[in-house]
Amino acid sequence: MFGIGMPELIVILVIILIIFGAGKLPEIGGAIGKGIKNFKKATKEPDEIDVTPDNKKIDPK
Length: 61
Description:
By secondary structure, the protein is mainly α. The protein is 57% helix and 0% strand. The chain has helices at 6-20, 25-44.
C-alpha cells in the first residue's frame, strides 16, 4: 500500500492520537466520512441549471 508498512502506519496513528487526542478522533473521522460522501454525491449528480424566471419588479425612481 504505497510503500507504507504496518510499523509506519502505527507511528502515524500514534502521532495523530497525540496531536488530536482520543476524544476528537471520532469527530474527525465522521467529518472525513461526510466529506467523502458529499464528494461522491456531487460527482454522480448532473449539474443543475436554474431556469426559473426572476419575478422581481424593478421600481423606477
